[in-house]
Prior knowledge:
About 45% of the residues lie in helices and about 10% in strands. The chain is of the alpha/beta class. The protein has one domain: Rossmann fold (3-Layer(aba) Sandwich). The chain is elongated, with a radius of gyration of 17 Å.
Amino acid sequence: MNIIQLTEFAIPHLEKTKGNIVNVSSIVSQKTNQAFPFYNISKAALDHFARNYACLLATKGIRVNNLNPGATNTAFLSRHGITEEMKEKMSKNFSIPLGRWGTSEDMAEFLVFMASEKASYMTGQMINVDGGILIDSPSFKLD
């Protein structure tokens, strides 16, 4: 079952319960990557899905948002064959302004907030929780 089928299946229940949808995408939806282009493309599609379904479902009172994590310490990397040594090399290719990788707990806090009534006026949004990766850019030296 794909995300569209699952969402369509859930709509009647979400209408009755005043529920909402929070998908987990990634900050890579906003970047290019020669090593994993299709992963990035799929996450960009999930972001566009959230925007479009938020528009379609707003009149039914159903909110749709995405959590877009940055570098997060989970089993995701090891499950995909990324060793600790490879992870260290990857970390050298980007900078995290807050100086650390995120944790599952960091992401869970945002998921709970996004699904709660405290976020009742938020729909069609991609919330980046990335320690500042997307705002970091190399400085140009003007010598």
